[in-house]
């Protein structure tokens, strides 16, 4: 099974396909060249042989007519020339009269016999017929014997000369040439195969280098970046891989930091509860007021632990695919009014003025639960991190494509060096103040994830000691 897999992998490899392609590119022209050379030689040799014999036959035909050979076939001169033509070209010559009777046959087989064929009949009409039979390897031609009357300017076909010539000599030369060209072809094929293997190996070497570098990076023994610049393609792949690797490192660092922060945040309330419980257990006959105080503190820590866990669960849900969104068309004006109604008691307690300003009616395709959580976190943070007798101004506007939420406060503001970190999980600008008001450091991370899931954007502008502005933009129509 392993051998079969290796063979299948090799067949599917780029190297094998390159070798195959280079072999085809090199071998096919060799084969076509050999076939073309052989066909060209055969056609050329037959053409020359035909032209040569036809020239000799025409000269002899004129002599046959001028010597009235058809009337007196005993002419030793003509007979000698016919025999010579037959011997030189290893062929057969027949002289046929106008009655289709064979007057002379150099093979002495068909003399005084009648011969009727398509070629002979055409020649009696004045045509010269030449054909080559490649199967049986012979050239056949029929030449009309024409008597010309110069006084009357007339031409009369009085007979036909039929010549059949063997092309065995051409076939022998063709076989010899075929043998030599096949040897050359085989040498070329082996050379092409060898060169293809070498060239394909060189061409895929950068990819093997990339694979080795990636393995070394995975095991921690290689460089921190992939750099294979042999081809434009490998250079682009290296750049993309390095970007992906950088992103993975960031994600891994973020994951480790997240796990560390979660452990710390969950451990802190447990440690407090442990200390309170041990303190109570170590006291004998402690007053009931102290018991109540300690149990109240333990209850507060439990509430804090519960809030952290709930926020973590909300964040996990936000990390799921956008396909988990339950999109419905919601009246955003009414949604904000409901949120402010729930938060107004907190604002009153903080002595913070809470104002909602809607510029126009807005309806949008959103997940009501997630977008409510996002907007609540923004407005609640603006209230909690505010000054006494401060204000929070929430405004809603829209155009033909987006709706815009602006949450502006007169609070403590965010230091400039912290603006790039506020969406990180468990990040707190002022840790002591955050713990006093019960913050978990997850609110803005949840808000940002919810906005991004809706294909939206969120921006922050803040001046420390003066206040903060959050601008949120979300499409009116959700497109999955």
TrEMBL record:
Extract the CDD domains matched here.
HATPase (cd00075), HisKA (cd00082)
Gene Ontology MF terms: phosphoprotein phosphatase activity; phosphorelay sensor kinase activity
- Reaction it catalyzes: ATP + protein L-histidine = ADP + protein N-phospho-L-histidine
Gene Ontology process terms (BP): cellular response to phosphate starvation
Q: Which domain of life is it from?
A: Bacteria
The membrane-spanning stretches of this chain are 183-204
Principal localization?
A: membrane
EC number(s) per entry:
2.7.13.3
Which EC class heads this enzyme's classification? transferase
Q: Where in the cell is it found?
A: Membrane
The record's Gene Ontology cellular component field reads: plasma membrane
**Domain Histidine kinase: residue ranges:** 261-478
Listed InterPro entries: BphY/WalK/GraS-like, HATPase_C_sf, HATPase_dom, His_kinase_dom, HisK_dim/P_dom, HisK_dim/P_sf, Sig_transdc_His_kin-like_C
Print the keywords alphabetically.
Kinase, Membrane, Phosphoprotein, Transferase, Transmembrane, Transmembrane helix, Two-component regulatory system
* Pfam families xref list: HATPase_c (PF02518), HisKA (PF00512)
Under the heading PROSITE patterns, the entry gives:
HIS_KIN
What is the designated name of this protein? Answer: histidine kinase
> What does the record give as the organism's lineage?
Bacteria, Bacillati, Bacillota, Clostridia, Lachnospirales
Q: Which gene encodes it?
A: walK_2
């Amino acid at each position: 099974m392993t051998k079969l897999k290796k063979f299948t992998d090799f067949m599917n490899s780029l190297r094998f396909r390159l070798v195959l392609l280079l072999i085809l590119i090199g071998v096919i022209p060799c084969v076509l060249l050999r076939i073309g050379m052989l066909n060209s030689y055969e056609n050329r040799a037959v053409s020359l042989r035909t032209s040569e014999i036809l020239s000799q036959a025409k000269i002899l035909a004129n002599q046959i007519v001028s010597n009235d050979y058809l009337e007196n076939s005993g002419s030793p001169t003509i007979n000698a020339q016919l025999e010579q033509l037959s011997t030189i070209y290893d062929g057969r010559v027949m002289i046929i009269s106008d009655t289709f009777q064979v007057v002379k046959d150099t093979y002495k087989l068909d003399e005084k016999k009648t011969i009727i064929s398509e070629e002979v009949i055409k020649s009696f009409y004045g045509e010269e017929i030449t054909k080559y039979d490649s199967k049986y390897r012979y050239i056949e031609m029929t030449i009309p014997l024409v008597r010309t009357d110069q006084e009357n300017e007339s031409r009369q076909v009085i007979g036909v000369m039929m010549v059949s010539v063997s092309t065995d000599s051409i076939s022998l030369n063709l076989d010899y040439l075929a043998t030599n060209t096949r040897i050359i072809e085989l040498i070329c094929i082996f050379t092409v195969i060898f060169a293809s293997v070498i060239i394909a190996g060189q061409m895929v070497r950068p990819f093997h280098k990339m694979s080795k570098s990636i393995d070394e990076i995975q095991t921690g023994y290689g460089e921190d970046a992939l750099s294979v610049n042999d081809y434009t393609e490998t250079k682009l792949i290296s750049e993309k891989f390095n970007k992906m690797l950088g992103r993975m490192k960031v994600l891994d660092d973020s994951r480790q930091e997240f796990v560390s922060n979660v452990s710390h945040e969950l451990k802190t309330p447990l440690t407090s509860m442990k200390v309170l419980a041990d303190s109570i257990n170590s006291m004998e006959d402690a007053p009931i007021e102290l018991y109540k105080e300690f149990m109240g503190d333990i209850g507060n820590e439990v509430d804090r632990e519960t809030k952290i866990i709930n926020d973590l669960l909300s964040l996990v849900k936000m990390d799921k695919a956008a396909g988990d969104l339950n999109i419905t068309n919601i009246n955003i004006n009414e949604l904000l009014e409901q949120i402010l109604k729930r938060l107004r008691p907190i604002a009153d307690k903080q002595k913070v003025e809470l104002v909602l300003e809607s510029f126009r009616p807005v309806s949008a395709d959103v997940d009501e639960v997630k977008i409510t959580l996002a907007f609540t976190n923004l407005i609640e943070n603006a209230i909690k991190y505010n000054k006494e007798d401060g204000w929070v101004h929430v405004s809603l506007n829209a155009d033909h494509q987006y709706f815009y939420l602006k949450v502006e406060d007169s609070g403590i503001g965010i230091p400039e060096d912290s603006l790039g970190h506020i969406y990180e999980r468990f990040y707190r600008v002022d840790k002591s103040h955050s713990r006093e008001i019960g913050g978990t450091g997850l609110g803005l991370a949840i808000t940002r994830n919810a906005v991004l899931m809706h294909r939206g954007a969120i921006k922050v502008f803040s001046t420390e000691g003066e206040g903060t502005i959050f601008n949120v933009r979300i499409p009116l129509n959700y497109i999955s």
